[in-house]
Write a structure and sequence with these properties.
A hairpin with a 2-residue loop joins β2 and β3. The longest helix is centred in the middle third of the chain and has 13 residues. With 135 residues, this protein is α+β, with helices and mostly antiparallel strands. The termini are far apart. The protein has one domain: Alpha-Beta Complex (Nucleoside Triphosphate Pyrophosphohydrolase), CATH 3.90.79.10.
Length: 135
């Protein structure tokens, strides 16, 4: 069994959470990615969000929302993604970059359009009253 160490950015506005779809993918993922050797969670968050969405995370504003584990989407059974999720302020204008084809704002009604680990985050956001159930 393998582990994928991922960091994700949770940006909620008006009861919807920011999500991305990479080129050639059929599901949406919370913005973020895998840690590079020697990077802290916040270093990874800043780098990945800049690469994917062309904005700058305000590192000092990052706050841990939770860590979630689930079967990794598109990987062999037993491959688990462990995703540490952070909220953070940002500077700049959100726009897709590099492998990101689409940026969307999803509600609880879109839960089935995201990866298994993202579904756990959606459940937490719904429980906390941060994500609305309907579009």
């Amino acid at each position: 069994m393998g582990f994928i160490d991922k960091i994700a950015w949770i940006q909620v506005a008006d009861g919807a959470v920011l999500s991305t779809r990479s080129v050639g993918r059929d599901v949406f993922y919370l913005p973020g990615g895998k840690r590079e050797p020697g990077e802290s969670d916040v270093d990874t968050l800043v780098r990945e969000v800049r690469e994917e969405l062309s904005v700058t995370i305000v590192a000092g504003s990052a706050a841990h929302l939770g860590t979630f584990e689930a079967q990794a989407h598109g990987h062999p059974d037993g491959t688990i993604v462990r995703m540490a999720c952070y909220t953070a302020d940002f500077d700049g204008v959100l726009r897709p970059d590099n492998e990101i084809e689409e940026i969307v704002w999803l509600t609880g009604a879109d839960r089935d359009r995201v990866s298994p680990v993202d579904q756990l985050v959606f459940d937490e956001l719904l429980r906390a009253g941060l994500l609305r159930q309907r579009p």
